[in-house]
Design a protein that fits this description.
Helix content is 20%, strand content 42%. The protein is α+β, with helices and mostly antiparallel strands.
Length: 142
């Protein structure tokens, strides 16, 4: 699925996102992440083998939600929920996190801190299968 321009514009504003994965017992596991877009996939960087990484390796079903900065004519805050399949790649997390830190923290931010820059980490790639929510991305019928 192609990510609409309106979603790219939302992600460029740096909304904190909630990544939901599936625990081994079927319960949800939710974590707050920085999110970017690369090649029609949502991407997130992780420096460790955290629970979300373990869960995705076992079960690729995820949901990703974020709030937009605007409200619609009815006074409802824009929101986006993405459902899709995720995959984990090894390496590249520090480079991605540095790119995202410029959006989420500030243009002069150096991230990860020097002691963590040598860790290759992991990148989660989410291929969207369905998008829901309130915002201009729904006007296109997606």
């Amino acid at each position: 699925m192609q990510i609409p321009q309106s979603v790219c514009e939302l992600v460029a504003t740096g909304p904190l996102a909630h990544l939901t994965t599936v625990n081994p017992d079927g319960s949800p596991q939710v974590t707050v992440v920085w999110v970017g877009i690369d090649n029609d996939e949502f991407v997130m960087g992780h420096l460790g083998m955290w629970k979300k990484v373990q869960n995705i390796r076992r079960d690729p079903r995820v949901a990703l939600s974020m709030l937009g900065p605007n409200t619609n004519a009815q006074g409802l805050r824009e929101s986006l929920v993405v459902y899709g399949g995720a995959r984990i790649t090894e390496g590249g997390a520090p480079i991605l996190l540095q790119r995202l830190a410029h959006i989420y923290v500030g243009p002069d931010c150096e991230f990860p801190p020097p002691g963590l820059q040598g860790k290759p980490g992991y990148i989660t790639h989410v291929a969207p299968a369905q998008m829901r929510g309130i915002g201009p991305w729904m006007e296109s019928g997606r």
